[in-house]
Amino acid sequence: DIVMTQSPDSLAVSLGERATINCKSSQSVLYSSNNKNYLAWYQQKPGQPPKLLIYWASTRESGVPDRFSGSGSGTDFTLTISSLQAEDVAVYYCHQYYTTPLTFGPGTKVDIK
Amino acid sequence: QITLKESGPTLVKPTQTLTLTCTFSGFSLSTSGVGVGWIRQPPGKALEWLALIYWNDDKRYSPSLKSRLTITKDTSKNQVVLTMTNMDPVDTATYYCAHRSITMVQGVQSHNWFDPWGQGTLVTVSS
User: Fold this and answer.
1) What pLDDT is attached to residue B108?
2) Are B36 and B111 in contact (CB under 8 A)?
3) pLDDT tens digit sequence for A7-55
4) What is the pLDDT of residue B103?
């Protein structure tokens, strides 16, 4: 199984400041045949299902604010919120869809400082 | 617009079998490249993938739960059903179904991410 880890477990950031979440996979999720990283990021607010933010590690889903960006390749990935807004308070999960069993990271909780 | 909605019992007793139904709209499970998956989330914990079914009846299961899971589809009703046997209190969770697709990406057949998700249904296992 590909194990996904995230750091930190939680972080508190002032409004307007940058939030950075890291995700690491236990093996590469980069598929050499198409040079795509099979890595997605989700945002989950209390009482709601996960919402897709980023796929292919860095492609923003339609309608997602451009303050959200994804980067990384192979086994190391980052989700950045460039200027934290109050509505960004949530838990963020990374997810590898490279192979089954499909796996998710443990989540990173983002709060306002 | 794709929507999915989970339904089933909110409370089951230990050792019982859970049957959940995902009813969807906006796509058909008879269309090539379409799939539906189940994912669960214990209260306050992370997401765990359970099972997948595709338009061609290809099925995939979490290895750790495979012996307890069965996923089926009813294309005419736009439904996917998940059964989980021998329920235990540790199976208490919100159960989600979600859409998944297979597309060609730069000449390669790619199994994609889950999107969108249903609202989820909380199942409590208790005597």
Assistant:
1) 86
2) no
3) 999 999 999 999 999 999 999 999 999 899 999 999 999 999 999 999 9
4) 86
pLDDT score for B104: 84
Pair A60, A104: CB distance under 8 Å: no
Q: Hey, is the C-beta of B47 within 8 angstroms of any chain A C-beta? A: yes
Do residues B84 and B25 touch, judged by C-beta distance below 8 A? no
Q: What is the pLDDT of residues B80-99, one digit of tens each?
A: 999 999 999 999 999 999 99
B118 has a chain A CB within 8 A of its CB: yes
Three-state DSSP class for A86?
Answer: helix
The Cα of A83 is separated from the nearest Cα of chain B by a number of Å equal to 25
CA of B7, closest CA in chain A: separation in Å? 15
Please tell me if residue B66 touches chain A, with a CB cutoff of 8 Å: no
Cβ neighbours of residue B14 under 8 Å, at least 6 residues apart? B87, B88, B89, B125, B126, B127
* Chain B interface mutation, best of A100, A103, A108, A109, highest count of B Cβ atoms under 10 Å: A100
| Matching residue, tokens 């989540």 | A107
Distance CA(B71)–CA(A48), nearest Å, equals 24
